[in-house]
Write a structure and sequence with these properties.
single chain; 244 residues; alpha/beta; 10-stranded mixed β-sheet; 27% helix; 23% strand; globular; binds hypoxanthine
């Protein structure tokens, strides 16, 4: 079964023929909301809205451990995460989709491991390649088959939020090598790795990052929703194509 974690602008999968919803409990607390189970093109899918239904949980307060645990325990063989980003790299623009290949983590204070050392031996997982290579390839092929243009690589900077970045912070992220900036793929990606669930993401560019292009004098928050409304349809098309 494929699991999809939807981010800002994607709180449901329209073509999901829903069979049922389950409120799951985990040793780490409750996930962001009920998990929706169903089928797309006959294939089983589980969907979870990362920010809850109604978009009420900010990025730093998402219970990432419960979300990933619940999906893994309910049989997720792979997780596709959908997450809005601001773009830093100059060939990207609002509305674009990109499949990131690397992560730099600037988040802090999030519960970011199942191996917290309290009652188990210390565990280090390999995270050289934070996204599953095979799943990334399948997403790129699915996008091609669906006729959806997607970028094939990006370094994702995970910031703490919920505020957006300063212009100087974006300059620093660029110097560090980041192409896009978002607030949610960490610790999600690392937790999926700890549970050995293949994980890859579709980034949807919502805006130019702070201080760049038409965000030079500020990010117009109101414009973000309109961009996401258009672009999320294409992200959904990629997921559906992945399932055919
Ligand atoms: N910064 C961080 N996260 C984001 C942004 C941004 O500019 N846009 C959408 N998510």
């Amino acid at each position: 079964m494929l699991a999809v974690i939807g981010g800002s602008g994607l709180s449901q999968l329209e073509n999901l023929e829903t069979s049922h919803r389950e409120v799951l409990r985990t040793p780490y607390g409750e996930p962001s909301g009920a998990v929706t189970f169903g089928r797309i093109r006959g294939r089983p899918v589980a969907f979870l809205a990362r920010h809850g239904y109604g978009h009420i949980i900010p990025p730093h307060a998402v219970n990432y451990r419960a979300n990933v645990w619940a999906l893994a325990r309910r049989g997720a063989e792979a997780i596709v995460a959908i997450a809005a980003v601001g773009c830093i790299r100059r060939d990207l623009a609002p509305g674009d989709l990109v499949i990131p290949h690397q992560i730099i983590d600037y988040t802090w204070g999030r519960k970011s491991t199942y191996h917290d050392g309290l009652d188990h031996a210390v565990v280090h997982v390999d995270f050289t390649e934070p996204f599953d290579g095979g799943l990334r390839e399948r997403l790129l092929e699915a996008a091609k088959a669906a006729g959806v243009a997607v970028g094939d690589a990006a370094v994702y900077a995970a910031t703490q939020g919920p505020r957006l970045e300063t212009a100087a912070e974006i300059d620093r992220l660029e110097r560090d090598g980041a192409d896009v900036v978002g607030m949610t793929l960490m610790p999600e990606a690392a937790l999926a790795r700890e549970l050995s669930v293949p994980y890859a993401a579709i980034n949807v560019v919502a805006n130019y990052a702070a201080g760049r292009a038409d965000s030079r004098d500020g990010i117009r928050i109101a414009a973000i929703d309109a961009v996401l409304a258009g672009a999320m349809g294409r992200a959904r098309a990629v997921v559906e194509s992945l399932l055919s």
